[in-house]
Amino acid sequence: xxxxKQISDNSSLLLAKDIRYNVFCKEQGVNPEADWDNxxxxxxxxxxxxxxxxxxxWRSTGRIVKIERLCVLEEYRKQGIARKLMExxxxxxxxxxxxxxxxxxxxxSKILLHSQLSALGLYESxxxxxxxxxxxxxxxxxxxxxxxL
Length: 149
Prior knowledge:
Elements: E1 2-7, H1 10-27, H2 32-35, E2 42-48, E3 51-60, E4 64-72, H3 81-104, E5 110-116, H4 120-125, E6 129-137, E7 140-148
Parallel strand pairs: 4-5
Antiparallel strand pairs: 1-2, 2-3, 3-4, 5-7, 6-7
């Protein structure tokens, strides 16, 4: 059974942190302090048979919504989990935008993310476009990608 849950409780956030540590720090050599920044965000976990296997977050930075920290445990990759998480997040961001615009009167103009080279195809298939030149973040090659709203 597959589920995606928006999370905010400490035990669920610790599960997300563990997944991120395994993928980003152990596999990719990212500094743990650079990964876990405690920025206010909306976090999700994906579960397969009640096991947390993937995570993602997004946050509003004023006129831009930034999607960050998408990762799937190695043994669960290539099963469409990353796509399902992205689709859920994009759906939730669209729900957030009218609330944000009417209450705070801040117009969200785009959704932004930093894509590792291996994930470019996923994001492009969801409508994201590469912006600018490739850059290196935590010794990993990335492109900025956006969807204009």
